[in-house]
Structures
1.
Amino acid sequence: METEQKLDTLQSQFPEVSKDVLLELLVAFDGSVKQTKLMLEEQFGPREIKTEIKTEIKTEIKGKFSGIKRKADSGTTANEYCSLTKKRTFPQRQTSFKVSKASANISTTLYNKEQIESMVPYLRFYPNFLPNSLADSLLDELLSKRATFKDKMFHIAGNECHSNHQSTVFYDGDIPKQRYDNGFYHNSKYMAQSFTGNIRTAKFLIEDQANEVLATTKRHPLQVQSEWRASLCVGNYFHTNKNNLDWHSDRLTTIGPLPLICSLTLGATRIFRIRKQYGESPIYNIPLPHNSLLLMLPGTQEEFKHCVPSLGNSLVARHPKANETRINLTLRMSRPHLLNNTPFCPVCKSAMTLRRMFKKPASRGYYFWLCDGGYHSGKECPGFYFANLSDIEKPHAKLYTRDVKHATRWLAEDDHEAKTATEFHMEDVKD
């Protein structure tokens, strides 16, 4: 079968996927229609294949292996050989992200669960996660609520800025006075609303999956020690492919260190990008289709940045009803004691944001508090504390310090560069 015929065959089964993307996939799978179809079915669900297409695939497979001869004494039966040829190998699970300078910022696309979880062990991917009826009903509901999604408003370098996408925040129960952003955005009170019935149903299913995964891992003392329960859901509305979300890691002020974040995609299939916060690292592109769930495990926000780009090829597939629109629901568990004990800036008395150092190996891993005042007034403020999170679960605790010796630090297991770096010294922070 010629390449153009293969593309036509695949397009007839997956009309929502552009030919450019199909060609890229076909090349990635060495021209195999069968392997490409299997990958697409993992992303978009099974498709009936026409009789004439089945014949073409059989012919393709037969032709591919017709010239192979097996030695009589090899000890491998014909059936065993056929079984082996059907298996596709993927890169070994990646535990270290150090790469050569030549490969830095190279973009690699990960197409299915095995590739995603092998190359980025901090992620878990589940296509077709919700029952189809619930996913479709939830999408319809959110599309009808477009007016409740607002631009995020904040200041940078004295200028008022608006996000390039719209957001809203759903809360489980009454809307709290202290919201998830701790007042970071000017208009956060206009973005707050309560969980709907569909969101609550989805939340229960996502919580079960999240706790099943957490049960297989060893919990760090900084993590939530109880069962994971989503108390809020940040919704992001990307109306067209021109709407984007820049590189960032999610704010830790209300969800704490080493959070688990569950991201549900509804509508169009867009590219999600992720890369290491530091060092020479490749960029991984992950197409997230309708009704797919991506878990960002504890450590993801500390070690990685992610974004939703607006590149020409970042729209992988339109949705039959939503067209280019993609809605992303990220479920999070807030930590009330952390929010109640957030310090105020020693300089201007504004609220502070919890962050983690990552650039220099010697200081990497230390959590700290930084003044948020500049995001409201437009005037930068030098207010700073180290974070001492040893009493993070106590209702009344001092979670800050001026002495780096008492600061809380977390390093990834594979961060040998930071673990072997010269001991970090910093003069105690002055008022």
Note: Residues 341-419 form one domain.
2.
Amino acid sequence: MTTIKLSSGMSVEIEDVLYAFVKSELAPGTGKTADDIFGILGELVLKFGPRNSELLEKRVVRQAKIDEYYLSKRNAGWNPTTDSAVKDAADLGQFLVAEGFLEPETSSADPNSFTMSTPELDFEMSQNGPELVTPVNIASMAVGGANARWGSLYDAYFLSDIHPEVNRDSSRTERLQMVVDRTNEYLDEHVAQWDGELSFNDLVSYSVRPNFEGKQSLFGRTGNGTEVGLQRPESFVGFNQVAGQLTEFFLEDNNLKVQFQLYDGGTVNKDNGQFKDLVVESAVTNIVDFEDAVAIVDGEDMVAALRNYLGLIRGDIQAYGSRGALKAINSDVSFIGVDGSVQTAKGTSLMSVRNVSLHMYTDMVRVDGQDISERILGVLLTTLIATAHDKGSNGGNQLPAREPNSKKGYVYQVTPKLQTAEEVGEQVRFFEAVEESLGLAKNTILLGIMNEELGMTLQLADSLLAAQSRVFFTNTGFLDRTGSQIRVQTHAGPVDLRDDLTRAVFNTSYELHNVDVSLRAGVHDQGKIGKGMQVKNRAMAEMMEVKINHPKSGGNTAWVPAPNPSHLHSMHYHMIDVDQVQRTMEDSPSANIIRRDLLTFPVLEMAKVATPQSKQTLLLSYAHSMVAYVEPWVRRGIGCSGVPNFSQIEEMKDRATERIDGAIIANWKLHGVVSQSEIDEAIKKATEILDEQNSGQPGYVPMMDTVEKRASLLQEPAILAVLEIIEDALTSPSAYVEPALFKYRKLVKAAAK
């Protein structure tokens, strides 16, 4: 450990690897030394550490009171049912008010009574489109996430499961034609229309020439020589040419661009995909994740993550992809505008950064011998990187020619798992202190609120008011939000099946409530109102059918797990004018969502688990989900992964998915639906299935392939973590999975040294 002294006399101990990184890589160019930076950190810990502990203790007290409330009702003879759930929710609401945890429903902040005063943000925040969440500790994924601002719709469509009857291997030509036909239909209906009701499929070449105003106009030519223009000429925004020959043109619809790459002479090739490529603007924003999608447990892990983030901000990061190709940050996209001037469009997503919340502590840095709140470390260092190193590049020194990530100089900090307006207010005060410590202008650090805890949902309007000059988005995280609901109300009865929870009253009302409150407060005037993740990362046919509901319901961004899903999801933002949807919603009466709906617990109908086989199958599926996620996390340090579920369908797993599974199993044990022995047997069977699924996979070490391993399975670190997550779902205030994951990952790392 490297030690420095504060003016107060207290010591700050820093893991050597972290100190060395800050000294040699982060600090240069900031005007500060490593000692300066860690001195600032130490002072922030002294100032905000006690308040952090106080807020966490309030969580403990609040949850204990709710548990006691339900237990006292049970002792008085109460028996919850699906029929009683609505009245039970109303009663709980009254209790929370009586205890001072909530204001009376009529006294809570009215989102119509105040206006967000967030400053004018970067252009991307006014664009409606997909948003990626990328793990910062995997360099290739970090680069791919940043570059997902643009991508081939042809490739995304061709490689998807859309129209599986046209096989991409055995029927390559037929599948290519299918892709061209479907994308042309989409373009005709949602992107641009030609004079004479002609289709993109009717045109064989394109040209550009000045109109009577001297501005460049786009024309298409049919096979018989007929020339037509666009019904909306203003959708044509630019082009490029080589030696006087048109090579590509750009159309814009709903504030998103589409790049049409042409063959020689401005032609199309009907036998080879029509256009050379059809490139869409898709992931206009991207969350660089230091939280749910990563496994960062020590200084070594944190340095790798910070180095990647520094490389993203500077634009010099490079990484080899899965197929061996070297990936680097895109240059900005240049083209000739309709007025003849050179225009530039950002080549990369606008990157925000998500650090951990109040409940996470770390020993990477210790102040006066005590672990510190990891959010203080993360926010300070990522803010310093984003403000001191975000300079863009003119293309020299082998760097891509690109503008800064934030042209306006903001740092977009996403804060997860805040539970109350009081906690939001504390985060605002912390941001103010970081700005002051680093000499930054007020409101440089902006706040993205993850509405993913029951408490946050109940206090959303008050939370927006507490941070009204800093909020750049509100986002629903239905996975964590479901885990939160189960834990908060776990004594309300046995919880419903996982696959049925998305349709539960609490969940549907929560999604509507987030959009309604955010709209009424004016979040969308400068920022985003977001929707949650597509979990099945390869189920694109399903995504195209289901995820269009996000823009239809007023969300102007929604999360996707990878670039190709992003490119496909971008189609929805051409199909739906979200701005118009939001205007209609603003002009309509507010959705009648009451607190009782948000508190209606999804009680299990016992008929769903009436037979031993049905119960065992369900329990096995939840146990398998946990083991499949926890194994790579604990044993290999993989924080987010696509793993096959119990039904052999690949799903994107992160901490939130396992918060749900652990909370369900714990709840069922509490209410006698399953026993501990049944849980243990399900975990053993799930591990056996996982061994079979991962047979021959590089890096996977079986857990059940010998008699000795079978006998001691429940002592395997990954399995101990699974069991502890389930136990914590009853004993901890929030059913977070991090304590168990971090504990056993650190043990595995220590054993390997």
Note: Residues 205 and 267 are 4 Å apart (CA to CA).
3.
Amino acid sequence: MPRWGSVLARWQACILGSAIAVSLEISGLALAQTSDPADLIRAIRVEGNQRIESATVISYMKLVTGDRFDNIRTNESLKSLFGTGLFADVKLVREGSTLIVHVIENPIVNRLAFEGNRRIKDDVLSGEVQLRPRTVYTRTRVQSDVARLRNVYRRSGRFAATIEPKVVQQAQNRVDLIFEINEGALSGVQRIVFIGNKNFSDSTLREVIESKQTRWWRFFSSSDSYDPDRLSFDRELLRRFYLKEGFADFHVTGAVAELAPDRSNFFVTFTIGEGERYRFGNVNLVNELLEFDVATIENDVGTETGDWYNAEAVEETIEDLTEEIGSQGFAFVDIQPDVVRRHDDLTIDVDYRIREGDRVYVQRIDITGNVRTLDRIIRRNVRLAEGDAFNTARIRRSRTLIQNLGFFSRVDINDQPGDAPDQAVINVDVEEQSTGEVTFGGGFSSTEGPTGSIGVRERNLLGRGQDISLQFVISAVTQDLDFSFTEPYFLNREFAAGFDIFRREREYQNSAFNKRDVGFALRSGYPLAEYLLQTLRYTLANEEIIADSDASATVKEQAGESLISRLNQTLMYDRRNRNVDPTEGYFARMSTSLAGIGGDKNYFSQSAGVGYYYTPWDDLTASSLAEFAYIFPTTGDNIEVGERFFLGGNSFRGFAPSGVGPRDLSVDSAVGGNLMYKGTLELGFPIGLPNELGIKGRVFSIAGSLTEVDNAASTVSDTGSLRVSMGAGLSWASPFGPVRIDITKAVVKESFDDTEILSFGFGSVF
């Protein structure tokens, strides 16, 4: 056995030795083949490069000195060099043991220009393209930029726009790139039709969506130009409208825009499925909050059983309930609607489930997007601070306050998780708009005649929120020059302070005298509560009464100059949805004036006003206003004509300016009064024209009177009787400014009153 083992070992050694010998022979052959000097790259030479260093070119290659000439790696090097975008052409040539790289560099863009563009400015177009001066020119980049520019014009509604790139060769392998643009006409929306609508007409649905049919009166609007993004938004607007009207199964199956062969107009077709209309079934409040009486919020539920289902009303109810519960000290509240749709009787049950939400506190407030405006100007209008309990109602209020500043075109407030589960970061993102104004205005009215104005104003001086302005107004009856400055947060507190320097002159029509005031005023304002504002104003002015030759003796005896020193305070409680043209809410105002803190005049005046606005149906607004004012002397002196109230014209339609109240019959001249009251009822309504025209009708009735004159002459008639007028009119929110026209009849009047049937006015600031 040992002998056989030794023999086997010798055989294994022999076999192993033979294998090693063969392996060494093969390896030697391979080594001999790869080390053949004729197959090795001894040098790499770059030719044709002007700007790019040879070392840079070689760094992009897959072959280096000492490598074997290899077709695969040569192709990879070509791909790598072309992939840089630096070269228009590349060739790799072998000369003996040298690899020659022939390159033709892409040119450098020397200048970028746009020609033929009038509707879209150069800075907008240049922001869209990738090519810039001193960047490498390639055909691929040019084609990409052309596509981008076409998209810009398509978004602006110009689908017929053509863009042709032109290249002008310059020295040193540079080029001027010129985009020749033919903008073409706007591609309008010729027709919008709906398929599947049974409950609402095409005209009604066209009022819902943003896209509009091309019509002659839309020359100041871009809504009649085709925009694919707007079409997508139209689908959402239709969904919201139908959900608001109770069609819970509504869906849009298609929205197709077909371009006319001449590329001038589109034909838009919406295919919709309305489904059935639902009513509210059972509406309940399900309270899961401890120590909370749900009966206190039952009146805040805006959805009632039997009403048509309204998804928007459900959301508004949730917001109202959240705000009301939060005002009662429950900051962490979560209200979710449980909606059950019943197809058998076409009703929808809604349970508002009130439960305690997650306890979340404000960790940090971040302000972004502001360039000029200081952070503190925005932060002081945020109704939350670091460490406060998160409150959605205060978030909404904060957004309203920041938007009302007038400094920003967009205000977004959102929240995101903080560093801990119970913390949130509030992000206030704004987009600034121009706050400086140079205004020129013009207009005409039946009471003022032609009116012109010029003014300079900056509403956000140095980004500090300060307001400074210089205004000059002139008309047939008024000449005003006013310089004003306002600091909204005086001494870094919620206390507005400012001053005015003025010169004002007004002709009192039907009274035969002019009043001229020259002086200054100091004013302040501060909130007493969330919607309650108090303002204080001190005025010191030289007042001059200039009587005409045909003026009343009561007026003539008061002609001349006097010094007036007056302190005024006003309380204003305002819950209107907006200050201009409100449609919902109410306000109450009370003003008090005291003259006699120095000066030549001594009197006390009181005025008050209330207003209520209500929208019972869409586009139908009812309003009621009431005013009262009274003035009386604090010494034995009489109230002079310059301080009395006058009524008529715009203040009492149906009567001429100063056409109501005490009148000197001997010269047919109004002398004013010390007591005034007036009430107005008005109903605004659409007149069947498209809403975007901004033309609305109204009917109104006004009742009131003006009475009481100090030391009146025997020729002055003052009955103090009630006057009533009724009328109708049109208002137009035109591109040139508001336009109004009213036809009013004085149905209850005195024989000596001065009346007028037609009143109108239009004006603009631009």
Note: The chain has a mean pLDDT of 83.
4.
Amino acid sequence: MTRVGAPTKVENKSRQNMGLKKDEHKLFEVLKRVFGYDSFKGNQEAIIRSVLADKDTFVIMPTGGGKSLCYQLPALIKPGTAIVVSPLIALMKNQVDSIRSFGTENNVAHFMNSSLTKLEIAQVKQDILEGQTKLLYVAPETITKEENIEFLKNIEISFYAIDEAHCISEWGHDFRPEYRRLRPIIDAIGQKVPVIALTATATPKVQQDIQKNLNMLDAQVFLSSFNRPNLYYEVRSKSKNVTKDIIKYIKGHQGKSGIVYCLSRKKVEELTESLVVNGIKALPYHAGLDAATRRQNQDRFLMEEVDIIVATIAFGMGIDKPDVRFVIHHDMPKSLEGYYQETGRSGRDDGEGNCIAFYSYDDIQKLEKFLKGKPVAEQEIAKQLLMETVSYSESSVCRRKQLLHYFGEIYTEDNCQNCDNCMHPRKKFEGKQYVQLVLETVLAVKQQFKNKHLINIILGKSAATIKSYKHNKLEVFGKGADRDEKFWNAVIRQTLIERLLTKDIENYGILKVSPEGLNFLKSPYSVMLVDDHDFENPEEEELFEALGSKSSTADKTLFALLKDLRKEIARKEKLPPFVIFQDPSLEDMAIQYPVTIEELKQITGVGSGKALKYGKPFLALIKEYVEENEIIRPMDMVVKSVVNKSGIKVFIIQSIDRKVALEDIALAKNLNFDELITEMESIVGAGTKIDIKYYIDEYIDPYHQEEIFEFFRKAETDSIEDALRELGEDEFTEEEIRLMRIQFMSELGN
């Protein structure tokens, strides 16, 4: 029975339809007039309607999916001012510039943060009070100030948008404690308005944290696919030549925009210098630069005055540049979420987007060392996130499948055809028995332990924790001892991807058997697995690659001719051949074919001094050879060295000129003595003369000096091992010989 005076269901329906039609008209009118689009993308329309209906809304949408529109458009339609909480000043500026660029009045959008003067803040507040401002961007630190809370109490707020909402979670890749205070602040302001939380990266664990912390467990959740089909993912072994590798990659993509991420400010500066010296338009971006410089560098990148930004993770959050064609990670990030978001900066226009990461387990170990001294809980979280990164890097499974699994999404394709593991697949093997053993072990320990403990059981390791739980008495103990830890890690990772195992959300890292896993145990079926990549010994791998590339790409005929010429010049100069140019330098000449002094200076181990002193006959030989054989030279791909320009080498040379004790030089630059000697060897090897006789005379016996000098004068090689064998290890030290070799090379070769 219908109450008197109340509208009937039919009347209600009719009114709703009228409202919908009106809203729809307004929605598409604003979309076209302000933003220039005819239609929405993906979930955008449903999200915007949710906000317009005053519902709490949670948006998980990958980078490039159009998150900004989801709060910008309803802000323009709804009465009042939308408060957008954003973590970075640079991001706010970019967003405000963007919304203003659509042809609306400047006062339609403002940001309020520490970069503004008191006068500018007063103007912003005036525009808001007059009802002209539809979007106000604030940092979490700004909104928590008492004066700003009082101000916001007196204005009409349409809704709150919490951008980069993953910052709320300790399990998120960019945790910001200030974000935890947002809900109490919203409650203190006291207006009953909806909240829209947005993030491009959120694992199931992070999603749960966001909703709990913002008290929006009943929010409408819009989860877009994390799959970016246009992005190509590749992980490469990180060698000592990583800078050279990066430069070659960039030069192979001339004129295209790219971002190179590094973990430290120092590395950002060093790499930027290397790029610039090699003719690449690049700028640095990190928190150590002043705000004006950061802003200027960002703008120059957006305006395409430079091609490359070398940055820490501070750069890129929310940067709307659709045509970034590649993202390179010089160092692997601290989490897969960070990696996903940073790679997501490329190909936002659905065009080409290449994501190249350089991986070395040494880098992971360095990151682990930095955790020392932090609270245990924080260390545990950080280690778990690091291990996810290791798993991704070392695994031979489709990169896309791994990433999507991490974000709780199933990727059903066997081959994505757009990652290194799919383009160069490894041979698969039958893994049914191994998966069975893993699942049985998880059940045997009552689904209460992480993979490290489980692997120790499978391997039969009698660790203290295993004995304390009496897990050494289990039937599964030692059943997989014929394989190593690396193998079992790979099995567990792939069992997770197959969804036969899951990770506990509340106690992240604890493994549980899924319903599918239980079914598998009842009725086992074929599971094809692949071995991980072997990045365990990067130095050996690097040596192998270097030897392989040299032997395969160096021109053997030219190399032989260069060796003959070297021998001839050495005979005339009465010097050992290696003093003229060492073998690696000749090999590089036989790859790069330099024909000018400037090009010769770019060759490995050749500095200005050597090039000018010995270069002419070598250049003449190479030029003649190139012309006779009609060779196309790859010199445009050569990496110039910034070694001679680097601060540390300049400091060493200047200090030696002033006859400063070598120990004091090492101490000043935080080097051990061995590292200092290596730096001096590099300086002399590149052709710069240094005189350390003042130090040698004080510490090395004159007779020893003479004997070592005489050895190198007659020697066929500059080998320290040969010198020690010849002179006697009992009488001479390696340090003495290395110092004397530096002096010898400097006096006779430079």
Note: The radius of gyration is 32 Å.
